[in-house]
Amino acid sequence: MQLYNKLSAKEREKLLEQAGEERLTLSFYQYAKIGNPHLFRNHLFITWHEQDVLGRIYVAHEGINAQLSVPAKRFIDFKQFLDGIYFLKDVRLNIAIEQDLKSFLKLKVKVRDKIVADGLNDATFDVTNIGTHVDALKFNELIDDPNVVLVDMRNHYESEIGHFKNAITPDVDTFRDSLDIIENNLKDYKEDKKLVMYCTGGIRCEKASAYYKHKGFKNVFQLEGGIIEYARQVENQGLENKFIGKNFVFDHRRGERITDDVISHCHQCGEPCDTHTNCANEACHLLFIQCEKCAVAMENCCSSECIEIIHLPEDEQKRLRQGIPNSNKIFKKGRSEKLKFKK
Ligand SMILES: [Zn+2]
Ligand SMILES: [Zn+2]
User: Fold this and answer.
1) In what order do the strands lie in the sheet with 243-248?
2) Percent of the chain at pLDDT above 90?
3) Which of 178, 182, 148 is closest to 165 using CA atoms?
4) Annotation says 266 is catalytic
5) Is the separation of the CB atoms in 201 and 286 below 8 Å?
């Protein structure tokens, strides 16, 4: 029985192009007690592999967090399979607005300690005492209230290309860092202000809202389904859209355009641009914003050093990478002194 990928990303890309069939990019999460995450993981992999589902899925004792691409014609099967799992019955599926055939090129189902790396010790607070969920309509009303503090729970490279008007966007690399910074900034408002938070698909707010309530914030609200679901509701219900720019997403597309505003700049030349890319040097893989002109001039690299490396023979590049564990973790996401226009 096959429990792991056999095709490389390149081979998969070719197959997808040849097949040309419609796919749906979607995500969902659920906090639930899972007794044996490994067994559950294998169950998911076997079924989804058979259904030609691709994506990145994390399974832990605390639940599941999944980002997927599903063949449109297998969607009914996929949905039935989910509904057959008691804690996933009628789980909200966040369906991406912009569809891309190649949003995911592999099926990776991983067992982790947690479904979001939040760095929190869950035993120290009541994780079920979460904030009040609000939909797009209520969220729009709330954030007009002068008594509201609106907080973006995402990292700097995400809010840089798009965020809600008037939101606090902490300049952080990790979710854990943002929790402390926000608490510190807002400590005088715990009693009287309403704390309203949002993230990409809602999952980070599930923990953050419980954490802030534990820390003494009295009025905590969270955007249900995050920016993805907000954009869908705004479109379907003809509501005012208070988000500007692009929603950063964690798949091949890297961003989903919500409005035409381009609020960020190319990190190499400073021109308006909101397209993320990863440095073409495998050993670097830095995530940064690069315009088309710079992509050509810099050969998709972040620096002249990286250009030199990609011109070396593959064997030589491999030799240089040796002994450097997990190379793309060495660089902080989206930060490098070599990028002239990265604040
Ligand atoms: Zn540029
Ligand atoms: Zn680089």
Assistant:
1) 162-164, 243-248, 255-257
2) 66
3) 148
4) no
5) no
